[in-house]
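Quick one, T. Sequence first:
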Amino acid sequence: MKLRLSTAIAAGKAAYWLSRFRGYQGSSLPGKVARRLYSGTLRDLAKQVRKGIIVISGTNGKTTTSNMVTEVLMDAGYRVIANREGANMIAGVTASFLLNAALRGSINCDYAILEVDEASMPLVMAEVTPVVIVLTNFFRDQLDRYWELDKIIAVIRDAIKKSKESSLILNADDPLVAQFRISTGLRSLFFGLSRQELSTSASSQTRESKFCPVCGTLLTYDYFHYGQLGNYRCPGCSFKRPRPQLESVELTYVPGGTNCRITYGQQAFDLAIPTQGVYNVYNALAAFLTGLHLGINPQSILSSLGRHQSVAGRMELFNYQGKPVYLCLVKNPTGFNQGITTLCAAAKTKDVLIVINDNEADGRDISWLWDVDFETLSADHRPYPCFICSGQRGEEMALRLKYAGIPIDKISVNQDIKAAINTALAGHADSAFLFSSYTALWQVHKLLKQLTAKGDPR
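Structure tokens:
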């Protein structure tokens, strides 16, 4: 068996270097090669993790939360393995282990932080035994590739309820996530946001959960943060928003970041993260609570999160001749709506580039764009000198903006992504926001790195 494992590791490492030599990321291919040669590669390597495995899943925020947890543990002095590139299916998870393994089949690791795609949870959970499972949120995402939410939630529930020794870190504000305490019976800890200035008494966005997951009664809300996230209760049974162990009670945006006042029992902390968006506050809260649960000193966690740098496309900040340029991955209506919220909150004028592809990894069906609230931008389009649309479905994106009420003289289409980026960067607005679907992201990111100097524009 050790010979088969060693052979699989050697082949996987060779596949990685070959992939990198040809200009690819090499984040999944090594795992595919290794698993083809020896199906027990992941299981054999994962059981060598000394302190525990943390699995992080959900629709939005997986990559950012995983990277935050990784940084918290590394800063605390632990040796960590993580699939930080975001390759979150079982091949990518396997690759993260084998690339850190010696050829003889051993690894030197205290913790493994695994971002796991929702549909891959049953496969991964069959081969690893996590001490902590973090669930961020659940929204509709690429329905032509995956399933309706009820089915994907049931699949995840059945995968994790067998893990009797695991603790759950759950988003209290999402009823689809909060229900896992009841449906799995596992020990559960919650994070959430109290009512904020930006919270609303009614939600105009798409809500994935209107009915109680326990009895089916229509949920009532005191307020919404976005989507179905907020303070909810069921008038038909006892299901309601759990009281979070960790809660943000005050949130303020500052240039290039967000400040939070958070409470944990009788303790209060001031957290400053160098990234914007309420969704990133949720990611930070999930990482903070995970660190606390693992026994990390709170001040060490605060320091780690305060130094966090966004990974590719997670409202990543670049600098172009003193102009801030933000790159944001968009792949479903809720994520795009939160990107638009951050765009609207930014000061002064902003040029906008939207790159939409419809490759298999993006989802062939782009009708989800009609559920995005672009109408928000048309209500006051003065801060937006131009909207540039690119990618394989750039023309359809331009049509969507037209029907949203954006003046057509502000909309242009350029299928050449590099030329479209240059146009956005060369605009006269005070900042630029670039939104990209999944398969275009690495190309856009690579071009941005060539054209800009990454860093703080202030």
